[in-house]
Amino acid sequence: MKAVVWHGVGDIRLEDVAEPKIQAPTDAIVRITTSALCGTDLHLIRGTMPGMRDGTIIGHEAVGEVVETGSGVRNFSTGDRVVVPSTISCGSCSYCRAGYQAQCDNANPGGKLAGTAFFGGPEAAGAYDGLQAQYARIPYANGSLVPVPPGVDDAQAIMVSDIFPTAWFGAKLAEVGNGDTVAVFGAGPVGQLAILSAYLQGAGRVIAVDHIADRLALAQAQHAEIVDFDTEDPVGAIRELTGGVGVDRVIDAVGVDAQRPATRVPAEQAEQFDAEQRQAAPASNGQSGQWVPGDAPSQVSRWAAQAVAKAGTIGVIGVYPQTITGYPIGEVMNKNLTVQAGNCNHRHYMPYLLQLIAGGGVDPALLLTETAPMTDVLAAYRAFDRREPGWVKVALNPAA
Questions:
Q1: Cα separation of 350 and 96, whole Å?
Q2: What is the CATH number of the domain that holds 87?
Q3: Residue 260 has pLDDT above 80, yes or no
Q4: Residue 276 covered by a domain
Q5: Smaller CB count within 10 Å for the chain: N or C?
Q6: What pLDDT sits at residue 257?
Q7: What is the per-residue DSSP string for 216-241?
Q8: Rounded Cα gap, residues 211 and 129, in angstroms
Q9: Are 172 and 193 in contact (CB under 8 A)?
Q10: Are residues 300 and 175 in the same domain?
Q11: Residues 350 and 326 occupy one common structural domain
């Protein structure tokens, strides 16, 4: 089968690999009908999320059809349409039962203290083969797969594999409530759905901060008040919009991308990403190779702490690797702020969001701006990495 395989910083390839097989009674094999590209995948390619294993299939979003099940999977049959949660969870440990599936005790091979396991990620996340492939093995399928309701198409369902639950979770972390004024930093795919989630959870006003014109236009189309940080100081603008007080809640939907400017991939590279371009910034640990984020707080974490009102709340869903240790704790403490962060417990929110879509209450597929066949995946990654106009959320068709 065809799959997108990570071989090094700046080096991913579309390759022929062996089809997955059942390895445990609770496994299922899913034929993937739609996958997607995500900013987290770019972190892996850039090396800003270290620890990838050579030969790992990347990707952590998928909708598909069950083609085979292990003897322990009693709730799905061949032919069932399913959404695959990005994070892997067993469904039976105390964390999963409490709704904290991102902290499952059993999914990560590193043990109970290892933290989140997810598809297509580094060794710290289990080094599970990912979902940008024609077929995938889904561990703990009986407790993790979510059926696609009638009337929900692939374009809608793929949004529920990762980014819609993550955005919803971000609004929950920020404790958005009725009448709140909310700032969303980052108007990429997750940021766009964070705007939607904030409104659905009761926000009275949402202010979106970014600098990419088409993303700001999408935010404005959702009736968010937009701030371009290239043309004005975002903290000053937010204070002006809120009578000098600041917002009640902040959602950080940026993460490690705010640590330094992202290195762009030259358009003329046709076969693979150029590792030398990716390593142009000096490594913070003084060694050559992939860039390692250091102790400096990200620009967004500073802006968030400054823009939120006293006693406000910050929810962090943008990806920060464990190598980042700096945070503006002084400002947070002196303003009595609450900061909550984490990887989304996808399986906890997915059934509700799918039913919301099935009922016609919301259509996240409006955010899907590009669809690429598997054969064009490297070109799609280049356009997505450069944030070219129109390339906001990109679906991948493994069958094409």
A1: 14
A2: 3.90.180.10
A3: no
A4: no
A5: C
A6: 67
A7: HHHHHHTT-EEEETTTS-HHHHHHHH
A8: 34
A9: no
A10: yes
A11: no
Give the integer Cα–Cα distance in Å for 51 and 72.
32
For 168-215, what is each residue's pLDDT tens digit? 999 999 999 999 999 999 999 999 999 999 999 999 999 999 999 999
Q: Edge-to-edge, what's the strand order for the sheet holding 11-16?
A: 11-16, 2-8, 56-57
Rounded mean pLDDT, 138-142:
98
CA 6 to chain centre: 18
pLDDT above 70 covers a percentage of the chain that reads: 90
As a whole number of Å, the CA-based R_g of the chain is 20
Query: Does 278 map to a domain?
Result: no
Tokens, residue 203 = 């926000």
**Domain-located, residue 273:** no
Kindly state the average pLDDT of the residues 67-85. Answer: 98
Report the amino acid identity of residue 327. Answer: Y
DSSP state of 364: G
Range of the domain at 136: 2-162+345-397
Q: Which two tokens stand for residue 38?
A: 């995500």
> What is the structure's pLDDT at 379?
93
